[in-house]
């Protein structure tokens, strides 16, 4: 069995978090195909939204993965999650599911709270994540209130500095929140410290996305 991991951000922390979840959740011996194109996220950040060229390159990576024999594809970047949504007809036609790392996280946040803080270091990740939360809330017939928390000055920090900054920003909004949701998978290593400090549910995508990938493989009959 082969699964493809499609990255537009190649921070070591993110790759480590995702591959750790893959090792825990998917059967031993699963072959991992890794596709990375940081220029996609760079272009999205520069434009402030997903323009046609990076969207085309991302879809090209999905097609590469399918051509290489992947049984399922995990889209890891939330900034371009709506591109994965747009590729669902291709996924159905080819029989190769294209799974978003963040969709099940958004569903669980909606299940567990009405006031959801969305933390991000990029505005280009904040809006697509909020759109996904609103969509799944409509599908679940639930009302949610979204609270933005854009963490300024996060780029270039080491892990300890980043944890400190995330904890500081979370403290500004924690009292308002039922759930604190991380829009970027690379934030996941801050999850435990913020949960313990503020006593709130904290959701990060790697621990949701890989089980969603497994569920897609179960639905295909690849895993029992």
UniProtKB/TrEMBL annotation:
Biological source species: Fusobacterium ulcerans 12-1B
Family: Belongs to the HyuE racemase family.
Xref: InterPro entries: Asp/Glu/hydantoin_racemase, Iso_Racemase_Enz_sf
GO MF annotations in UniProt: amino-acid racemase activity
Protein name: Asp/Glu/hydantoin racemase
């Amino acid at each position: 069995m082969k699964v493809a991991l499609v990255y537009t951000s190649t921070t070591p922390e993110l790759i480590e978090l995702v591959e750790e979840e893959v090792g825990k959740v998917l059967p031993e011996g699963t072959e991992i195909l890794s596709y990375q194109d940081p220029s996609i996220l760079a272009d999205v950040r520069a434009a402030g939204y997903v323009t046609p060229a990076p969207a085309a390159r991302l879809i090209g990576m999905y097609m590469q993965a399918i051509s290489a024999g992947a049984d399922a594809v995990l889209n890891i970047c939330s900034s371009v999650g709506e591109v994965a949504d747009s590729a669902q007809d291709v996924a159905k036609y080819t029989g190769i599911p294209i799974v978003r790392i963040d969709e099940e996280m958004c569903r669980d946040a909606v299940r567990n709270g009405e006031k959801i803080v969305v933390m991000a270091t990029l505005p280009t990740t904040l809006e697509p994540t909020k759109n996904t939360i609103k969509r799944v809330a409509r599908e679940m017939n639930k009302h949610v209130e979204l609270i933005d928390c854009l963490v300024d000055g996060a780029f270039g920090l080491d892990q300890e500095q980043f944890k400190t900054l995330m904890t500081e920003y979370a403290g500004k909004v924690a009292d308002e929140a039922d759930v604190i949701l991380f829009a970027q998978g690379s934030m996941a290593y801050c999850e435990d410290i913020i949960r313990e400090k503020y006593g709130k549910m904290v959701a990060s995508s790697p621990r949701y996305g890989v089980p969603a990938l497994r569920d897609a493989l179960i639905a295909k009959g690849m895993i029992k």
